[in-house]
Amino acid sequence: MDRLPTAKQLGLSASKRVHFVKTSKELNTLISQLTQNAKYIGKRYNTMKIKKTQKIEQVEVDLYMLDDGTQINIRFNSQTGGKSIDIDRKYKTIHNLETLRK
Predict the structure, then answer these.
(1) How many domains is the chain built from?
(2) How many CB atoms within 10 Å of residue 46?
(3) Domain for residue 11, yes or no?
(4) What is the Cα–Cα distance from 49 to 93, expressed in whole angstroms?
(5) Residues 1-59: pLDDT tens digits?
């Protein structure tokens, strides 16, 4: 994951903990790799207010746990746009450049 460009490197924000992949296919491959040996914990639903539009949206989140206790959350919607991966809550977040909100 450290090979993935950060939001700071891409000039999108000052964050060094937010990383980006280029395509949905790349994000889905990474999700498969990260959750391959993980235990599925369940599904959760959150609501979020989109900063750009002020619209309220519901977010579906799949929760996984690795053997070492690392938590992997797959959000099916995000402030940035599209699906994203959160590792250990918000220690690292991975978004998709292809689905950025305009």
Answers:
(1) 1
(2) 11
(3) no
(4) 19
(5) 558 888 888 888 878 889 999 999 999 999 999 999 999 999 999 999 888 888 998 99
CA distance 77 to 8: 21
Phi and psi at residue 97, in whole multiples of 5°?
A: -60, -30
Q: Rounded distance, CA 35 to CA 46, Å?
A: 21
Could you tell me if 94 and 84 are in contact, meaning their C-beta atoms sit under 8 angstroms apart?
Answer: yes
Give a yes or no: residue 72 inside a domain.
Answer: yes
Q: Please check whether residue 7 lies inside any domain of the structure.
A: no
The whole domain housing 81 covers 18-99
pTM of the model: 0.86
How big is the CA angle at 98 (ends 93 and 102), to the nearest 5 degrees?
Answer: 90
Nearest CA among 55, 50, 63, 54 for reference residue 100: 50
Contact between 46 and 79 under an 8 Å Cβ cutoff? The reply is: no
Q: Tell me whether residue 9 is in a domain.
A: no
Q: For residue 74, how many other CB atoms are within 10 A of its CB?
A: 19
